Amino acid sequence: MDFTFDAEQVALRDVARQALERAVDANTLRALVDEETGTTEALWNQLADLGWTGLLVPESHGGAGTGLLEMCIVLEQMGRLPLPGPFFSSAVLATLAARALGADELLGPLASGEQRGTVALQEMGHGDPVSTVRARARRKSADWVVSGDKPLVLDGHSADWAIVVARSEEGVRSFLLEHPGGEPVPTLDPTRKAARLVLDERKVRPIGPSGNQAALWRRVLDDVGVGLASELVGVADRALEEAIEYAKVRVVFDRPIATFQVVKHRMVDMFHQLEMARVGAQFAAWASDANAPERERAAAMAAGYASEAAVKVTGDNIQTHGGIGFTWANDAHFLFKRAKQNEVLLGGVSYEHHRLARMLVESA
């Protein structure tokens, strides 16, 4: 199977890297950390003008109509910065959810960047994010209301709307909450903002097909996990690049540390983990676009392995830098924090390992 990118995909990768490096340098990255939304209108409009906010939106609704693989190409380059702001929560998570739920009226504003959406799903730090939903939705007169606690909603304080996943008499259902206005919460990664939504009979509107939507959400989360894996490939790629360059110039005992065998072995291990994560993420993205039989297994493998690999590679980058690796002036800690926070999103690595083990046992 040939995983070589075609000419258009190569061009997308190159344009994404060049545009992002120009738009977000080291000083800009640190300035965006202090922004409430993690971005600026100018930067967000630039991402929208490039068409990236609409990559996953069908052309009939104003988007580019590309597949998950093309989005993952862009996400990998964003991970190299790592890019602050609500791109992932809106252009990936909310867009995939709205598309799967058939909420077509949400797609146009998402594609143009006019509106930003998010998803309020996760309630526990581990386990299946769908089966552990405890928020409740019920009818109240002619309306629907939802009550519950969503402790970690990406960009839940700044999104124009959130798709809230809650339980009803039919099972797991989806509800549109306008202007969620969550309370910002501190996170390990200062470049990825999050909020807590405490819902006390908030008025919502049901969206999506009738009946239990648990299977639909698990399919969405598979693609979201592949997107996170691709972002982490970019994070690890940048970390390895930094480690190599620093090892060439750091001199100890009158020799660059790159000449020491232990450092060489570390770089080889980092490269191995990076490339295994890269091929896993690319295969999983292809499998999703092709709806291949191994799609679910590939998604679990990519999400689990890429997360562990990125934490290890970014940690080794800090070790290579020594004490300066965790100083504010060095980008190494931003990369590690993005990898470590992604490790616990949407069920975390332990959940991916658990469900992969279940699939392997069931297929034996």
Query: Strand content of the residues, in percent?
Result: 15-25%
Give unreliable regions as ranges.
none
* Classification by helices and strands: alpha+beta
Q: How much helix, percentage-wise, in residues?
A: 40-55%
What does this structure look like?
With 364 residues, this protein is an alpha+beta fold. The chain folds into three domains: 7-115, Orthogonal Bundle (Butyryl-Coa Dehydrogenase, subunit A, domain 1); 119-211, Butyryl-CoA Dehydrogenase, subunit A, domain 2; 215-363, Butyryl-CoA Dehydrogenase, subunit A, domain 3, CATH 1.20.140.10. Helix content is 51%, strand content 16%. It is built from eleven helices and nine strands. A hairpin with a 2-residue loop joins β4 and β5. The longest helix is centred in the middle third of the chain and has 36 residues, at 214-249. The radius of gyration is 20 Å and the shape is globular. The model has no long low-confidence stretch (mean pLDDT 96).
Which labels suit this protein?
Butyryl-CoA Dehydrogenase, subunit A, domain 2; alpha+beta; single chain; two-stranded antiparallel sheet; Butyryl-CoA Dehydrogenase, subunit A, domain 3; 3 domains; Butyryl-Coa Dehydrogenase, subunit A, domain 1; 11 helices; seven-stranded mixed β-sheet; 51% helix; 364 residues; 16% strand
How would you briefly describe this protein structure?
By secondary structure, the protein is an alpha+beta fold.
